[in-house]
Amino acid sequence: MENKKLTTSLVASFLLATNLYSNDTNQISSVTISSSLIETNEKDATYTTEIYTKEDIESSKSKDIYEFLNSQTSLVIAPNGGNTFTQKIDLRGYGITDGYQNLVVTVNGRRLNNIDMTSQLLSSIPLESVEKIEIIKGSGSVQYGDGANSGAINIITNGKNENYIKTYFGNNGTKNSALSLGFNNDNIILNTYMDYTTTDGSRNLQSGTKDDNYSRNRNINLIYFPTDNLEVKIGRNFSDMNIKYAGALTLNQYKSNPYQFTTIGWDTEQYFSSYVTDIGLKYDFLRDYSFETNFSNEDKKSMYSSGWTSNYDYKTLNSKLNINKNIYSLSMGIDVFEGDRITSSNTVTKENKALFITGNYFVSKQFSISSGLRNEEVKFDLLDAGGVNKDISLNALDLGFNYKLDENNSFFANFNKSYQTPDLDRLFWWGSFNGYIEPAKVKNFNFGYTGIQDNNKLKISLFYSKLKNEIYFYSVGATQKNTNIDKSHKYGIEIFDKYLINKNLYTSLNYSYIIAKIDEETESGTVYDGKDLPGVSNHNLTVNIGYEINKFSGVLSHTYRSEAYGAEDFGNSFSQKQEAYNSTDLSVSYKYKNLEVFGKIQNLFDEDNGLWINDDQIYPVNFERTYYAGIKYRF
Asked: Known InterPro entries for this protein (predicted)?
């Protein structure tokens, strides 16, 4: 309790500090949203955005993407059953259990969503290589289609890598080493990167060992400019990891000793690897026209200690034609995806094929309108596994407008229709086909304000989402199955503010208030009408204060999520609730010429955090104080 009081006092002091300093500032500038079909300045956007530049990322002193997203953004991040390399992500109240399936994640346009219940792999992306992270909220279905109900996260990497070598060490035997190389001339950009991270683990396992793990990433990519109008790129990425999962604990075990091994479940171990090949080109022809096409192939393997092994083959092709005139812009194209899951006994396939068109029209200097349509055909081939083939046709729609009061302030409104088809795991239970699940369909309404001054960026948005057939996993007693919530809704308010207090000091705040309700649902004779969707915190807050002077910099941050119902508590009747999440982090850095020395303490006040699935089924998450320190040499 004393820790929580101290944390609250610190956060309050940081917020108060924004009003106590002079207005001697650097400048905040608006940013171009480059991952959308049509590039748009964030002040002109007709939808809700949350954008982080390379400067924002570097000043956070985060060691990886998951840490940055959890401590700086409005996203909710949690390890997937102890897997810190492939964590779960939620946006706008879809729940930590299923939120990642209602959100599309891309890196340089390549979709990272999977055809089964596996979260997007972000740990393969070195944070230092990220140029920008763009979070699109309540929109994106015309561009990304299947799964873009809450929006999209777009990660854009550097054109040229920084040249450096880096290493750090931390408690629990944590070690990391990384090498980044980049070369460029007038016609070529060549990048290569490799890293290795390992930890001895903190949780005990039933075998008498600990939940140690490792992760390795290697990539090489080439960008070639044969002419001023043509860009050709090719890349190859390899990632592999080995994770040992410690099982859940009872409440008494969690409170008395979260390090202990489980007595209510079992431990498991997984090896995972991914090879990705990317090929693409962009050609600017005439004055206002350009064409882009990108192809990627990913081969994945997942092996569990139980003997269950799956191989995956993903192929993706997207192409678009862009037209940019003075008062309007158009983008039209195709998206094609084919994913195979191959086991020792069968092969199942999910295919997506889509056509889309979107446009922006500037009615005047102050007023702009956007609209877009998408038709997507989804095909399931399940015969080899004893299932039934099925074709589904779905449509997405996006309408929006933006009105600029002046050069610094604007209002926007947006209406979006999106959808989500079931993944392959949803269609089978213990190896047997359980029938098809209806696609989820969502109507999103967004209204917001954007204000960007020289020393302050403020964004406020209101949203309402009306859902039909929200997909979820029902688990009560012996009854377990994947099914749909007939009707549900979500609404909330989101506030982002970054304030430059003076040239050395800044603070930022990201707050969201979210309500997620079940309107109509009856399952196994139980009525869930009016219940809260489990796993959704009403209050989510990240607050930061950063200081930089001469060669020294530091960031103090706090992440808070209010209590919620356990992940499987759809009846809101469990005796235990998901406890509030609190973590205060402190990072420091000192630079001397080409050398940087850095360190970080996470969960400074040693808060006990966990993920509640059911009564007495708790996974410890960021439950201890951890630290690391290292050096980085640029050359």
From this structure: Beta-barrel_TonB, Beta-barrel_TonB_sf, Plug_dom, Plug_dom_sf, TonB-dep_rcpt-like
pTM across the whole model: 0.93
Phi-psi region of 622 (alpha: psi -120 to 50; beta: other; left: phi over 0): left
Residue 57 has pLDDT above 60, yes or no: yes
By C-alpha distance, which of 351, 404, 422 is closest to 380? 351
> Nearest CA to 463 among 498, 495, 439?
495
Angle among Cα 175, 176, 179 to the nearest 5 degrees reads: 155
For residue 375, give the CATH number of its domain: 2.40.170.20
What is the spatial distance between Cα 157 and Cα 184, in angstroms, rounded to a whole number? 15
What is the distance between the alpha carbons of residues 618 and 264, in angstroms, rounded to a whole number?
10
Token pair for 610: 């966990």
Beta bridge partners of 165: 179, 633
- pLDDT tens figures, 481-504: 999 999 999 999 999 999 999 999
Q: Is 452 helix (H, G, I), strand (E, B) or coil?
A: strand
pLDDT in tens, 94-145: 999 999 999 999 999 999 999 999 999 999 998 989 999 999 999 999 999 9
Other beta carbons within 10 Å of 462 = 15
Beta-carbon-side half-sphere exposure of residue 615 (alpha carbons within 13 Å): 9
Burial 354-374 (b: 16+ CB within 10 A, else e): bebbbbbebeeeeebebbbbb
The answer to whether 144 touches 104, Cβ cutoff 8 Å, is yes
Compute CA distances 537 → 474, 567, 580, whole Å: 20, 11, 8
The number of folded domains in the chain is 1
Q: What's residue 26's pLDDT?
A: 65
- Residues 149 and 103 sit within 8 Å (Cβ to Cβ): yes
55 is in which domain, residue-wise? 2-634
Closest CA to 557 of 570, 547, 542: 542
What is d(CA 210, CA 261) in angstroms, rounded to the nearest whole number? Answer: 9
Positive or negative, the Cα torsion across 12, 13, 14, 20?
positive
Cβ proximity of 23 and 3 under 8 Å: no
